[in-house]
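Design review, sub-item: ligand-bound model
Attendees: FS, YL, KQ
YL presented the inputs for the manganese (II) ion complex:
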Amino acid sequence: MYRKIKAFLMEFDVLLFMAIIFLKVISLNYSLNLMQNADKTLVEGIMGSVFVAGALLLLFNGKSRYKAFIILDILISLLVLIDVVYNRYFMDVTSVALIYQAKITGEVKDSVKALLHLEDLKYIIDIIIFIPLYFILRNRIGVIKTSGWKKRFAMMMIFIAAGYTLSYSSVKALNRDQPDILKTMYDKKYVVSKIGGINFHIYDFYRYITDRVLNAEKLSDSDKRMIKEWFNNRNSVTAKNYSGMMKGKNLIVVQLEAFQGFVLNRSINGQEITPNLNKLSKESLVFDNYFYQTAWGGTSDAEFLSNVSLLPAREGSVYYQYAGNTYDSLISELKNQGYYTSVMHANRPGFWNRANMYKSLGFDSFVNENNYVKDDIQGLGLSDKSFFRQSVEKIKEYKQPFYTFMITLSSHFPYKDENNKIKDILNVGEFEGTTMGDYLKAVKYTDEAIGEFVDALKASGLWNNSVVVFYGDHSAIPFEKRDQLAKLLYNKEDLTPLEWFNAQKVVMMMHFPGEEFKGHNSMIAGQMDLYPTLANLFGVDAKYALGRDLLNSNSGFSMVREGNWIHDNVVYLKSTDKVYDINTGKELNKNDYIKDFELVYTYLKYSDAVIEHNLIKYFEGK
Ligand code: GP9
Ligand code: MN
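KQ shared the predicted structure:
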């Protein structure tokens, strides 16, 4: 009898092991509620990792095979279980960068017991059976006679090749379907839904090791002190105008999805695209030359630039790779002044790793998709109208003073109007059916939502004791569709590099109680200038800001990671590698602007150093 079992076990255990791992990894996707995305790609991805796991087991023979089976099984089950539990708390899967985040693990540790459910037993039930079975049987069946090493080695190679091929095909399909998702990891759960949990963790681990360990540049203590000095000198200007003028007022900052600057005060076929914002602009301080500075991290970069005043990450996104850092932010500074701080966005909390990053940024609460009634859908999710309506109800209850940061969603690329709800909102004429046409309608819709939002704030009495800021996060019309931009802006076929550059501005206006500041400020500015500008008005310091206080500077500047920069009327374009006068379009001598290039380089270097070496923690001795 035992001999029969032994014969049967020959390599059969590897298949059993693979089947168990397959079931565990796929049930992770069930637990995370991701099965609506399941397709061939997912099965390939999971099978790929299962083959590699099988190959690992084949490494062992004899007595160690039992142990290897159990140990590998425990490790993989643990990985799956961590994700299941982590998801109950953070509504996301974990990643190496986050495990190092003592703050979060500490917090989770306390609640792990509460987060473990009885049903989680299914992930370890086999282990509960196998361990005692191993002790009962080990003396009876002795050593499992596995195949000879040559055969095992050949099998291992085949398994690894199969594993690699399947996983590769799955990753490739994901990349085709969502380009850049692996680079920025804007939706970790989506990645898991397409390539499986094990592949995701292997990729995440690989990224962490290559980016953060192997390629990490060393920074000496004297370098760190020097950087601190640089920020000190930069941000310790004393005599400033308007300091603390808005102290004690509430602050509401609304980041508008893809609100490119050209929509403001523009009409199409006799209709205003943004009548509500246009009206508001007359009572507000409007920045006409406000450039977005985002990179791979899109919306999340805009949030980061505006609240932290540092540049986006070298590659990928700060929100994914550096969510565990200590930050100095508009949020943390206002919180120190006794402000209640909240962020509101009606999307999944794991998107852009927000749930984690918002904790590090210091928000008291993150009002997300799960806190809204999904009573009206437009674009990617809850409609902006419903979002604002429900948000005002929540804000009304806040302890004052508060800072609330709101992020809209309806005007997100590709501006589809699935249920034809806004088909007739704007007559876009020749742009009907184009990206531009769809975009303008989406903008008009969000503008209506803004109008209702302002009315609701007025009705609640909050309008008069709050500073309310509206700005756009990044571009809306991709470079490949610039002909549509050329048509709308200049009624021509294409844009020159300078014209394209000039269009990369976003809407920016600030409304002050009693309209203390209003009119137009045409100085060149960028998103990293928001925090220092508001910090001065609210009487707090922005010690480690890279941006400038726009109400206390008289020279314009903006730059983006990719290399373009603009200093007053001088602009450098990476695409042509030339320097121009922005007003005349005349080419200037690049060598005359070495200082500007050096400054841009310094900004990039110090911003990266602060982010990659978690320097705020070091500066503040936290
Ligand atoms: C999703 C939203 C979109 O929550 O903020 O991000 P984006 O794709 O614009 O970077
Ligand atoms: Mn966006």
